[in-house]
Amino acid sequence: QVQLVESGGGLAQPGGSLTLSCEASGITLNRWSVRWLRQYPGEKREEVSCISTSVGSVYYEDDVNGRFTVSRDNATGTVLLQMNNLDPEDPAVHYCAAVRSCHNTELLYVGKGTQVTIST
Questions:
Q1: Which of 112, 103, 93, 109 is nearest to 46 (CA)?
Q2: Sheet order of strands, 3-7 included
Q3: Distances from the Cα of 41 to the Cαs of 46, 56, 62, 77, 93, in angstroms?
Q4: Per-residue pLDDT for 26 more than 80?
Q5: Which of 43, 52, 60, 100 has the lowest tally of Cβ within 10 angstroms?
C-alpha cells in the first residue's frame, strides 16, 4: 500500500519560515516527480511547486517563486519544501503528491496534508 505523509506544518509568524517534508512508503520517492499543492478553505487544490526525478528540474507557482525552495534529501528519500518569508496569504493545507512528471497533471498518490498557519 502506498502512503505519502507530509510533516512540518504548523504556526509561523509573517516573514518566518517552515520546512515541509514529504516521505513515502510503498514507493521509492526518488523515482517519482513530486508536486507540492496547497488548498485554501473552500477552494480547489492548486500547484505550488514540482521537482522532477533524475535531473531535478524544479517549478514554482509565481507567488512563491523566490520564497519557496523544493529539494530532495536523497539520503532519506524525502522531498522538502522550504518556505521562507511567509506571508498572510500562505495559510493553507499543503499536500505532496507523486506524479509521473511535472508536466503531467494526474496525481497518482497524494498525502493527507499538513496545515500551515500564519500568526496575525
A1: 93
A2: 3-7, 18-25, 78-83, 68-73
A3: 12, 31, 20, 30, 8
A4: yes
A5: 43
Residue 120 to residues 16, 39, 64, 68, 93, Cα–Cα distance (Å):
12, 20, 20, 21, 17
Task: Give tens-digit pLDDT for 46-95.
Answer: 999 999 986 679 999 999 999 999 999 988 999 999 999 998 877 899 99
For 43, 48, 65, 96, 115, the CA distances from 62, given in Å and listed in that order, are: 18, 9, 5, 18, 21
Confidence of residue 98 (pLDDT cuts 50, 70, 90): very high
Chain centroid offset of residue 13 CA = 19
- Classify residue 85 as left (phi > 0), alpha (psi -120 to 50) or beta: left
